[in-house]
Task: structure prediction
Amino acid sequence: MKTYPLILLTVLFLGWLGCTREPENLTDTGSLKSGKLKFGDTIIIPYHSTLYDEQNNLSLTFDTVLTDCRCPEGCLCCWQGYVQVGLTFSVGSQLYPFAIDSYFTPDTALESYHFHLVDVTPYPTIEQDIEITDYSVLLVVTQ
Result:
């Protein structure tokens, strides 16, 4: 009976420890890539890439991974964790940096646009660290 609190504390500590690990190379300034910003469909934005809607003078850039404390595949966790990414939406010359995450705030509205986070890939595993340049964001942008 006395071992249950010890086991619970150990599991909670290991869960907290897993969520304190930050993605590596957050200062990586790899070259920016670009593509077309589409509305209403799921779009994929690789790390440090920008999607443009030149007709409406809009762009959306995947700037950084702020935190990734999702429970890795192959690991038993007391909660699923979450991932938070930083993006910048621009309308003309006006920049709107914002953070969006998979658990607390998967939806954000800026100007007349709505952003819904679908997923962030790859999903962490216990066997392999994720390089910052491997991340991609899946979003749905609507007007």
Confidence is low (pLDDT under 50) at residues 20-31. The domain at 3-142 is CATH 2.60.98 (Tick-borne Encephalitis virus Glycoprotein; domain 1). The longest helix spans residues 3-19. The chain has one domain: 3-142.
